[in-house]
Write a structure and sequence with these properties.
Shape: globular
Distance between the termini: 20 Å
Strand order of the largest sheet: 5-6-10-9
CATH architecture: 3-Layer(aba) Sandwich
CATH topology: Rossmann fold
CATH class: Alpha Beta
Largest sheet: 4 strands, mixed
Radius of gyration: 14 Å
Number of helices: 5
Number of domains: 1
Order of helices and strands: HEEEEEHEHEEEEHH
Oligomer: single chain
C-alpha cells in the first residue's frame, strides 16, 4: 500500500477518516483473504491522526514490488504527488501488477502513465489533473487489472455522495481471486 506522510490538505480529520474507513478497510478485507499488506510512505514513519495510527512498514524508496501481488493506493494524496510513489507505480505494468486506487490515489497512477488508454474514475475536483485515459466519472471502474473510484470516505462525507471504498475493495478482491 502506498501512503503519504505529510499533512493532508483538509487537515487531521481527513487523515483520520482515511486511516479508519479506507486504509483499514483494505487491510482488513485483504487480510481476511490471506493477503499480508505492507504499507510504505515517503518517510517510512507511522501515520497518526485523531487517535488513529497507520503502521508503516517501510519508505517508498525501500518498497519493491518484485515479490508483491498487487498495489493499493488510498486517497491520501491530494495535489502533491510523491515522486517516490509514482516510481513504484511505474513498475506495475511490466510485472502485470493489479492496482486499486481511490480518488487522490488515482493521481499516482496518472503520474506513472498507467492510465494511458484505460478507463478510470476520479473525483470531480481532481479530474483536471489527469490527462491520459478515458474518464468514466466518479463511480468504481475496472479496466483490466486496474480498479479506481472517485469517491473516498472523506469526499463522501463532505459531498454526500456514496463512498466507493467498499465496492472498490470488493471488486479488487474478486479480481485477485481470478
Amino acid at each position: 500500500m502506498i501512503a503519504r506522510d505529510d499533512a493532508p490538505p483538509f487537515g487531521e480529520t481527513s487523515l483520520k477518516i482515511a486511516i479508519d474507513k479506507e486504509v483499514n478497510t483494505f487491510i482488513g478485507r485483504l487480510g481476511a483473504l490471506g493477503y499480508a499488506v505492507d504499507v510504505a510512505s515517503e518517510n517510512g514513519k507511522d501515520i497518526s491522526a485523531g487517535g488513529s495510527t497507520l503502521t508503516v512498514d517501510k519508505k517508498h524508496a525501500e518498497a519493491k514490488i518484485t515479490h508483491r501481488v498487487c498495489v493499493i493506493i488510498p486517497c491520501m494524496v491530494q495535489g502533491n504527488v510523491p515522486t517516490s510513489a509514482v516510481k513504484i507505480a511505474q513498475d506495475m505494468p511490466s510485472r502485470n501488477m493489479p492496482a486499486a486506487a481511490l480518488n487522490g490515489g488515482v493521481l499516482i497512477l496518472a503520474g506513472a502513465g498507467v492510465l494511458e488508454g484505460r478507463n478510470y474514475a476520479i473525483g470531480q475536483n481532481l479530474q483536471p489533473y489527469v490527462h491520459d485515459g478515458d474518464l468514466k466519472g466518479i463511480r468504481v471502474v475496472r479496466d483490466g487489472d486496474i480498479v479506481t473510484s472517485g469517491v473516498c470516505p472523506f469526499s463522501a462525507q463532505v459531498s454526500g455522495l456514496k463512498d466507493g471504498t467498499d465496492e472498490l475493495v470488493t471488486t479488487f478482491a474478486a479480481m485477485l481471486k481470478t
